[in-house]
Amino acid sequence: MNIFISAIGTDSGKSVVSAIFTEALNADYWKPIQAGFPTDTETVHQLLPTPKEKLKEAYLLKYPMSPHASARKEGIHVKLDAIQLPQHTKENLVIEGAGGLMVPLNDEDCVIDIAEKLDLPLVLVSNTYLGSINHSLLSIREIKRRGLNLLGIVFNGERNEDTERIILKHAQVPCLFKVPQLEEVSPAVITNLANQLNQTLSQHLNVSIHE
């Protein structure tokens, strides 16, 4: 299966979560649009315990800015139609978005449009900070407004049970995984977390690393 990993904002830990899902599903990893260096593709592959083929980005932009701004600075126009799923991948593919769902790709399209165009089910990464409930519920509402398939929520970082409860109540989807506050991230840590996640995925999504 293909899964689109997005988040309620920037610096949410999408790359770490993507690495965990990639390992748990024995999947390939793909970042459709990258702005700035080092790339998330490089970061994820450094974290993966199991070597994977590096899939080329549809757009690789120089500046660590919103994709629309970075592209404009380079004289590039990001075209949604140019973003197509890579060929010759494994059965499972983890696709990581850029920033939050409503980060603009150009003057018309946003990151969520990639998931909608490619008909990808989503996993939303949420964090605990002042304002995170608002950001989470707005993201969930937009996903539902578009009729997209939200598979579940991943909570990343410091725990807040009441915040998590109210987000899940409105989302009406399961919490797929809780990534603890990590002081260090390494392939060994990814392996451990992937093993934990795989049990949850088997329960909620009926998929397994052994498929």
TrEMBL record:
Provide the residue positions that the database annotates as binding ATP: 11-16, 40, 96-99, 180-182
One Pfam family it belongs to: AAA_26
Enzyme class at the top of the EC tree: ligase
| GO biological process terms, semicolon-separated | biotin biosynthetic process
The enzyme's E.C. designation = 6.3.3.3
UniProt cross-references to Gene3D superfamilies, sorted A to Z: P-loop containing nucleotide triphosphate hydrolases
The UniProt entry, under CDD domains, shows: DTBS
- Listed InterPro entries: DTB_synth_BioD (IPR004472), P-loop_NTPase (IPR027417)
* Catalytic activity from the UniProt record: (7R,8S)-8-amino-7-(carboxyamino)nonanoate + ATP = (4R,5S)-dethiobiotin + ADP + phosphate + H(+); (7R,8S)-7,8-diammoniononanoate + CO2 + ATP = (4R,5S)-dethiobiotin + ADP + phosphate + 3 H(+)
Where found, per UniProt?
A: Cytoplasm
Task: Quote the pathway field.
Answer: Cofactor biosynthesis; biotin biosynthesis; biotin from 7,8-diaminononanoate: step 1/2
**Where along the chain is Mg(2+) bound?**
15, 40, 96
Q: What GO molecular function terms would the record report?
A: ATP binding; dethiobiotin synthase activity; magnesium ion binding
The record's note on quaternary structure and interaction partners says: Homodimer.
- Family indicated by similarity: Belongs to the dethiobiotin synthetase family.
The entry's function note states: Catalyzes a mechanistically unusual reaction, the ATP-dependent insertion of CO2 between the N7 and N8 nitrogen atoms of 7,8-diaminopelargonic acid (DAPA, also called 7,8-diammoniononanoate) to form a ureido ring.
Q: What is this protein called?
A: ATP-dependent dethiobiotin synthetase BioD
